[in-house]
Known about the structure:
The chain has one domain (2-266). It has twelve helices and no strands. The chain has helices spanning 2-22, 36-65, 71-78, 82-106, 108-118, 133-143, 145-149, 154-172, 189-195, 212-217, 242-246, 248-253. Residues 264-272 have low confidence and may be disordered.
Amino acid sequence: MVLDTLQKLLITMVVFLPLEHFLPRLKDKKIFRKNWSLDSCYALISPFIISASIVFVIVLASLVIDPILPARIKEIIASQHLIIQVVEIIIIADIGYYFVHRMFHEIPLLWKLHAIHHSIEEMDWLAAHRVHPIDQILTRGLSLIIPFTFGFSAAAIAMFFVLSGWHSYLKHSNINIRFGPLRWILVSPTYHHWHHANEEHAFDKNYAGQLPIIDIIFGTAIMKETSGPTYYGTDTPVPKSYVGQLLLPFKLLKPQKKSAPLKTEDASLSGQ
Ligand SMILES: [Zn+2]
Ligand SMILES: [Zn+2]
């Protein structure tokens, strides 16, 4: 697993570093920009915590769903063409992702955790990793319960992981690429950059991970493709270090004095 993670990171680096260098959205962004070491910790360590916990969530869900789900439904789903199954997984998973992601924005306690992802001030492929494991486990785990328990083939699920993984790097990347009419079908980098905007009109918009149609249906889409945001980040203070961010849930759950802020030495004051 260690070698797999390193290999995956290396391949991603080989693909995205040249693209970000030759086709930059923001020309003055450096490879070793602010917080690159923090995001490297996320990229190298978090996958181990996340995969084990997502498996736990899925196994738990299977124990509940398996006995009540008619075997015929599983057979029908498994008998479909691989590509149909992948498309169905993308739709089901993204609907789930939309609602869990929205919950992380709308419930104050969850927002404080999700603010870690929104503390990204310089977007690039590496920044895609900066998500608290609990955030990742709930958004990914809950959105994948149906794909994992309703009989979709292992090949379809694996293909979904590959596609959504590369797509996540692309939508966070600093690559100046326009999707044109495709932006109505698939989340483009500009679309997701608006989700990270530190501009009031863009707060709580563009939740969808892959399919903008979900945001369009629920009235939370910004479809501007010609320009991206000017300001990124969040005003919500988050701890600066990887360990501090990892331990944030304990801090949030500890009873605090009224209006007591997070310690200033441990909080990022820049952002939204
Ligand atoms: Zn968000
Ligand atoms: Zn993001």
